[in-house]
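Bit of a strange request maybe. I'm writing a small parser for C-alpha cell strings and I need a real example to test against, not something I typed by hand. Could someone generate the C-alpha cells for this chain?
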Amino acid sequence: MERAALAEWLTPAQLALFDGMPVADRRHGLDVAAALRDAGVEDPAVVLAGLLHDAGKGHGIRLWHRVAWSLGELLGAWVHRAAGLLPGGAAAMARLRDHAERSAELAAMAGCPARTAAFIRGAVAPGDAGLLAALRDADEAS
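Reply from user aminoacidic:
Good idea to test on real output. This should exercise your parser:
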C-alpha cells in the first residue's frame, strides 16, 4: 500500500497526520502496514496503527539519535543517558522514549479509533494480544 492508496481509506485528518511525519517515518509506516497485510492482518485498527505508530517522533530525530536509542535498547539505559549529554540528545531521547504515547494521542486527535491508539501504545485487550504481536513483528522487520 503506497501513499496514493491511503486517500481511499484514511480520513483527511489521518492523512494530514501521515503527511506531517518525516519522510523516513512515512516510509517505515507504509512498510509496516504492507508487512501486516502480507502476514494476513486486515484489521483496519492494526493496519492504521502500523501506519501511524511513529507519528509522535516528530521532526529533528537524526540518525545518531536512532542509533543511540537502538543501542540503548540492546545495551542498557546508560546509552540513552550518555546520548542525552550530547547537544540535542536529551530532547531527542525523551521524544524517542515517549513517542508511542504521543503517537497514540496524535492518532486519537486525528480521529483514529481508540483501539488503534491502544495498539500504538502497546496496551491492548487480551483478545488483541496476537494482533499486537503481529504489529511488533512487522515493526521490527521493516
